[in-house]
Amino acid sequence: MQRFDRFASGLALVLVLALAAGCKQAPAQPEHAHASVTAPSNADARNRDRHGPPTVDSYVASLESAGRVADLDVPVVLEKLALADGTTVADLGCGPGVFSLAFARALPHGLVYSVDVEPRQLDRLREHLLADGLENVVPVLASYSTPHLPLASCDLIFIADTYHHFDERVSYMRGLRRFLAPGGRLAILEYKPGPLPVGPPPTHKLKVGELERELVDAGYEREAKFDTHANHDFEVWRVRK
Description:
By secondary structure, the chain is α/β, with parallel strands linked by helices. It has helices spanning 2-25, 56-63, 66-72, 74-81, 98-106, 119-132, 169-176, 210-217, and strands spanning 88-92, 111-116, 137-141, 154-160, 180-191, 220-226, 232-239.
C-alpha cells in the first residue's frame, strides 16, 4: 500500500509538471490573434469581370450614374423591343440592374433573369429589388463560359455594354442559342466603334463590322437595326433558319 501511495504521488507530480510546461508553451491567444488569417473582405476582392475595372464599388456607381442612364435611353429601348407582358427576358451583364429593373416593371407578369459574373453587382441589384418590391427577377451568378440559364427558356436575351467583355465571342454567342425559346430574339446595345465622349477607349471596343461578322458566324441573322442612340449601336437578331 505504501508503494502504491508513493507511485500515485509521483504520477500526480508528473502530471502537474506536464500541465505547467504545456501552459508555458501554449499561452492563451488574444482575441485578435487570428486577424492575420481572416478572409479578405468584399472591398478587397478583385472584380470577377476580367474586362471591367478592378474596383467594383466605383464601377457600380458609374453604371448607375445619371449620365450613363440618360445615354442608354431605357424608355426608347423598351419601346423598340415592344415586349408583350408575360415575356421571359435574360439581361446578360446586368450590372446593378438598370435594364433589369425596367424590364421587371414593364413586364409584371413576365420573368427577368439578371445575369452577371460579379456577385457584388447582383448584391446591388438585390438591394433595388427589395426596395422596389419586385418579385419577378431572378439574379443569376454566371460563369465566364455560360450564363447558367434554363434551356429554351428566353423569349429575349438582352446584352447592353457587355458584348465586348465576352471571351471567345463567336463560341459564346453560338452557345447562347440553346437558351432561346423557339422564335426568341437577341438584342444587343453596344458602344459604337471609335472615339466617343463616353464609354471605354477605342482599343477596348469592337471594330467596325466586327459585331455583324461574329453574329453571322455564330448562326444569327439581323432582324432590325435602330438609329436611336448617339453612342450605341442597337440591333435585334434571330437564330438563322
